[in-house]
Design goal:
About 75% of the residues lie in helices and about 0% in strands. The protein contains twelve helices and no strands. The longest helix has about 35 residues.
Length: about 325
């Protein structure tokens, strides 16, 4: 029996606006928004420390969303808020801090991105090893093929830097942090789940405090009065946080964690397209080939899960 079928999904209990949008369109938007985070991080390096930008993007999102979520938050019990805050710390603070601090310590950006691309495999291994989930061999094959495609895309950017050896564990720990948060969110009972916007607000709020502590120890938290800094914050707050994380949790309400994470295998080639358009970085046939390989892997995951979902219904019909 497919383990994911037993997971309750609060968005299915009542109609929601996003139910009218085909899942594949939400996933396409997720890939575009998620990949914008890597471009925003690269752009911001010329204007401010990475964690300072991340801190202020959390502040901006918290202020923007507060009027829309205040009433909902007042009606939520402290216990539910605490659980969702823990998910937010793992998903946002843990993931972003691991990636950005690893790069800041000298881990090459391409290698850090490849560690981040291990998310689908991390989810599958955690689900199998900790939760006892069983995935079909076609899904495992699709995940491996998708990872191979992502490696092809980032091959030219992968190098072994001069960072301390322990620093290479930071991007990997960041990826695992997001994987744990994803499974925790997916298994959270509907009665303990927040709405999409309150959940995003809480994640940014608690992560903002975490980033304030880490960056405050190293230097000032004052914003840098420059156009580049302002654009970096607005770009990452709008596209990467509200767009990327918002769509990530939205897709997770309508699909399995494995499917949603596997779709992110297309993030590296889309990131390369962003870099080509914004920074005039060259494209290559190797990147195109990698995107095609990742597409095959994602198709295997999606097709296998769809076939498994139809099987019980076909059995009842017969």
């Amino acid at each position: 029996m497919n383990q994911y079928r037993s997971i309750s999904c609060p968005s299915l209990s009542k109609p929601a606006w996003h139910q009218a949008i085909p899942l594949v369109l939400l996933e396409a938007a997720l890939v575009v928004a998620w990949s914008s985070g890597f471009i925003g991080a690269r752009f911001s390096l010329d204007y401010a420390p990475p964690l300072l930008v991340v801190f202020w993007r959390c502040v901006v999102v918290t202020l923007i969303l507060l009027p829309f979520v205040a009433r909902n938050l007042r009606r939520t019990s402290p216990a539910v808020l605490l659980k969702n805050a823990g998910i937010g710390l793992l998903a946002m603070a843990g993931y972003l801090a691991g990636i950005t601090q690893g790069i800041a310590l000298g881990v090459p950006a391409g290698l850090a991105a490849l560690f981040a691309d291990l998310l689908p495999m991390g989810l599958a291994l955690l689900g199998a090893g900790v939760l006892g989930q069983r995935l079909a061999w076609q899904i495992w094959a699709g995940l491996i093929i998708g990872l191979a495609g992502a490696a092809l895309v980032t091959h030219g950017a992968i190098a072994w830097g001069d960072a301390p050896l322990w620093a290479y564990a930071l991007p990997l720990l960041g990826m695992l942090s997001l994987a744990v948060a994803t499974l925790w969110q997916k298994y959270l009972p509907p009665s303990q789940s927040l709405g999409l916007l309150p959940n995003l607000w809480l994640q940014c709020c608690v992560s903002g405090f975490a980033f304030a502590f880490v960056e405050g120890v190293q230097g000032s938290l004052a914003p840098i009065p420059s156009t580049g800094f302002a654009l970096s914050v607005l770009w990452t707050a709008g596209l990467s946080t509200i767009g990327g994380y918002g769509l990530y949790w939205l897709c997770l309400r309508r699909a399995t964690a494995t499917r949603v994470a596997s779709v992110l295998y297309l993030s590296p080639p889309v990131t390369m397209l962003w870099a080509w358009a914004m920074f005039n970085e060259p494209l290559s046939w190797l990147m195109v080939s990698g995107m095609a390989v990742s597409g095959i892997g994602i198709w295997m995951v999606v097709h296998t899960e769809a076939r498994q979902a139809r099987r019980p219904a076909d059995g009842r019909a017969s």
